[in-house]
């Protein structure tokens, strides 16, 4: 069943809402026993919610399908968003699918190659800004307030509504909520969505427990952790290169109500975590997503016997090939004969 139908009772769907889909959601929840062993954890289960398996390769599709459905319901013709890349890709795809025109504002030179390619091929009007994501967001807020552009950033409450379905899927599969939920934090919409989803599902009697929400920002882009706006955010994880998150207060609420934390991880920890989970488990996520893996590594000592941990891998690794090519030793080239190939393999 498509996402909007499956969770219809929990979503703002009316008889006039078009039930559009690119078959988003229903993403795998993968147990990672090699990683558990690597951490030296015996009776603790870790699962990764691999959101890179969504149609445009990130979790944004869950929120976007809802936001675009509501935009269509009210007769919008144009969508607009600011983006560090994934929102743009998703907005462009769902707009294309439904005959809307999409406009995306991105910080020039600061979005991963795959995401830029997506926005372009889906036919969005891509405008690069000589400035960062936060400035892009200010501009699209203004434009959506003063012109007939439908804003599809996570300030749009329908985005949050759609994204909370990831929490539903986790509970449906585990039969309970995890004890800890690890998640990267950028504009802070996703941590807000999961917390809302978990609370609503418990309210509906689907489970009796709630997780601690464990959010992670990159050290150079950690406004919530630092307690002030970061004017010039910097991190290798361009998806979360955000200095003034839109859902700042709601992220703090999720942290405080759940008894969780919002903390930092360094770029080095992010890249190591990305490589670790790929080489240990065969799961390739983008750098921002690896912030949640780096978070688990950082907090490995807090877990107790029997704990169930879920981490969201927000985006697919193929989004950002350059970060891999630039950070791992390049393959060697040899002459095309058996001896040279064996020598290169080391056999
Ligand atoms: C892979 O696309 O903000 O805390 O404009 O792409 O909900 O913002 C992306 C964010 C984590 C952070 N992981 O989520 C955008 C954008 C990936 C992301 C985040 C993003 P939020």
Descriptive notes:
The protein has 347 residues and is an alpha/beta fold. Helix content is 42%, strand content 15%. The protein has helices at residues 3-6, 33-38, 60-73, 86-98, 113-121, 133-146, 157-163, 165-174, 189-203, 223-226, 248-258, 267-281, 287-298, 321-325, 338-345; strands at residues 29-31, 45-50, 78-82, 101-107, 125-129, 149-151, 180-184, 212-218, 261-265, 308-313. The strands form two sheets. The protein has a six-stranded mixed sheet, with helices on both faces. A four-stranded parallel sheet has the order 5-4-3-6, with helices on both faces. Strand 4, helix 5 and strand 5 form a beta-alpha-beta unit. Helix 3 packs across helix 4 and helix 9 packs across helix 11 (248-258). The chain starts with a helix and ends with a helix. The model has no long low-confidence stretch (mean pLDDT 98). Ligand AN7 binds at residues 58, 83-87, 154, 184-190, 239-240, 286, 288-289, 314-315.
């Amino acid at each position: 069943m498509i996402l909007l139908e499956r969770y219809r009772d929990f979503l703002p769907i009316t008889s006039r809402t078009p039930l559009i889909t690119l078959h988003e959601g229903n993403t795998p929840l993968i147990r990672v026993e090699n990683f558990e062993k690597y951490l030296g954890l015996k009776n603790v289960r870790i699962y990764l919610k691999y959101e890179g398996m969504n149609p445009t390769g990130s979790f944004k599709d869950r929120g976007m399908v809802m936001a675009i459905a509501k935009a269509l319901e009210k007769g919008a013709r144009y969508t607009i968003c600011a983006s560090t890349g994934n929102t743009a890709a998703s907005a462009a795809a769902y707009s294309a699918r439904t005959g809307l025109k999409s406009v995306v504002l991105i910080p020039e030179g600061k979005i991963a190659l795959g995401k830029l390619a997506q926005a372009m091929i889906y036919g969005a009007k891509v405008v690069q800004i000589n400035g960062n994501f936060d400035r892009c967001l200010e501009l699209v807020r203004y434009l959506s307030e003063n012109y007939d552009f439908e804003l599809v950033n996570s300030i749009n409450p329908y985005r949050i509504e759609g994204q909370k379905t990831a929490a539903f899927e986790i509970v449906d599969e585990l039969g309970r909520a995890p004890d800890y939920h690890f998640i990267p934090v950028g504009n802070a919409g996703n941590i807000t969505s999961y917390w809302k989803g978990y609370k609503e599902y418990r309210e509906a009697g689907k489970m009796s427990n709630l997780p601690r929400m464990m959010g992670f920002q990159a050290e150079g882009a950690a406004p919530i952790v630092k307690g002030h706006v970061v004017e010039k955010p910097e991190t290798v994880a361009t998806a979360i290169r955000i200095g003034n998150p839109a859902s700042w207060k709601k992220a703090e609420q999720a942290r405080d109500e759940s008894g969780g934390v919002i903390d930092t991880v360094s770029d080095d920890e992010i890249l190591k975590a990305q490589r670790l989970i790929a080489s240990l488990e065969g799961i390739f996520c983008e750098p921002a997503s690896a912030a949640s893996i780096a978070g688990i590594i950082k907090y490995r000592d807090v877990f107790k016997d029997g704990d169930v941990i879920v981490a969201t891998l927000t985006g697919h690794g193929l989004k950002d090939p350059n970060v891999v090519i630039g950070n791992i030793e390049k393959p060697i080239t040899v002459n095309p004969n058996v001896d040279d190939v064996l020598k290169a393999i080391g056999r």
